[in-house]
Design a protein that fits this description.
Elements lengths: L14 E5 L3 H6 L5 H21 L4 E8 L7 H24 L2 E6 L7 H14 L5 E9 L1 H18 L9 H5 L12 E4 L18 E4 L9 H13 L11
Helix pairs in contact: 2-3, 3-4
Length: 244
């Protein structure tokens, strides 16, 4: 039995976001092509989804592919897109049966039409599921997201449908990709790097950050459990003075 399985009635469901880093280093460290690391990373995604369900996580957001990743070699990008197709076609039914709701955030205009169709199909099929809310950031960059939200607000103000005085944090957040999602409570980054790399910049304002040395293909239940334990040891003050 797993020791760290919080019951829903004991505490609110958490939103955990993960920057999945280290696939390439995992592979090159073993003398293998980087693409092998990406394939192993898919196995880690499945383990992490299962662990999140077992550990009572309510929302899980995974940074799958950034706007900057488009600058990688074309063959590597092609392999990542092929793995995305595989995941959606082969794992969707299982995720649905487990009660996982799928969402995707990011710029879909740069994705191939068949992938866009797969994203829409996945979201439609799983829309009613409530056991785990899984959000995957694809072709995503937080600066791009914030810039686009600012454009939407500016257009409404220019059109006269929104008064400048009405623009506040709540309204601005409603124009982001994550408008219907809670802000992350915990952001984990694997591979030992200690930065958030243009990921959920607005939403991460009060998130706790945990950086671990494990490379993403090796990530699993024990790593997620340890990160959650570290999170629960921290006192979240949101700018206020904590207990003396």
């Amino acid at each position: 039995m797993h020791r760290f399985a919080p019951k829903a009635e004991d505490q609110p469901a958490l939103h955990v976001a993960i920057i999945m880093d280290g696939n390439g280093r995992w592979a090159t460290g073993r003398g293998l092509p980087r693409t092998v690391g990406h394939r192993k990373g898919i196995d880690a995604v499945q383990r992490t989804i299962d662990a999140a369900i077992e550990l009572g996580v309510g929302h899980l957001t995974l940074f799958g592919f950034s706007t900057e990743n488009w600058r990688r070699p074309i063959l590597e990008v092609g392999e990542l897109m092929k793995l995305l197709r595989f995941f959606l076609r082969e794992k969707l039914r299982t995720l649905h049966e487990k009660g996982v709701r799928l969402r995707f955030i990011g710029d879909r205009d740069r994705l191939a039409p068949d992938i866009v169709d797969l994203l829409a199909e996945s979201e439609a099929l799983t829309r009613g599921n409530t056991r785990l809310n899984l959000t995957v950031a694809l072709s995503y960059g937080a600066r791009q997201e914030i810039t686009e939200a600012a454009r939407r607000v500016a257009r409404d103000v220019a059109a006269g449908t929104l008064a400048p005085e009405a623009v506040d944090e709540r309204l601005f957040a409603s124009r982001l990709f994550t408008a219907d999602l809670p802000d992350p409570d915990l952001i984990i980054r694997t591979s030992g790097e200690q930065r958030i790399s243009n990921f959920l910049l607005w939403q991460a304002a009060y998130a706790e950050l945990v950086f671990i040395d494990t490379l993403w293909p090796d990530f699993g239940h024990a790593d997620l459990e340890a990160a959650l334990a570290e999170f629960r040891r921290r006192e979240r003050r949101y700018g206020a003075v904590g207990a003396q």
